[in-house]
Write the structure tokens for this entry.
Amino acid sequence: MPAAAEIHTAARAKPAPNAIRLLKNDHREVEDWSDAFEETSNGPRKQKLARQICTALTIHTKIEEEIFYPACREAGVEDDLMDEAVVEHGAAKKLIAEIEAGKPGDEHWDAKVKVLGEMIQHHVKEEEQMGGIFSKARRAGLDLEELGQKMQARKDALMKRAKARR
Ligand SMILES: [Fe+2]
Ligand SMILES: [Fe+2]
């Protein structure tokens, strides 16, 4: 490992996962919360889960759009894939804004959280499946370790900001 990377890693509490691992971990986390949302009928619990899902997805789509997708484009992964992903992010962001503006018991609020979960499921499949963005990124020879460090740092900063806003 080069010295610079060593210092960077040592400065962190734990080393950043590689870019794809980081994004997949986010996917699994949101899927778990979506499942938990479906399983509970407790209003405050639903509200808490919805907030967690929305915050995590907002940050996740940001680091994909700011760092990961541009790196994929630069490495030669077909633009079509990322174009479609960004449009899907846009649809999710609209729903997230409506969910964040509402609360349990509001008309269609529950349905919106469920639909968001379904949209994410579809989107995640497209990123993770064979021939999807992640497998093409791997084949394009991106430096996933370096990218992961950058993305983790950005994610940490965005999380800190989101917590301060609450
Ligand atoms: Fe993703
Ligand atoms: Fe995405």
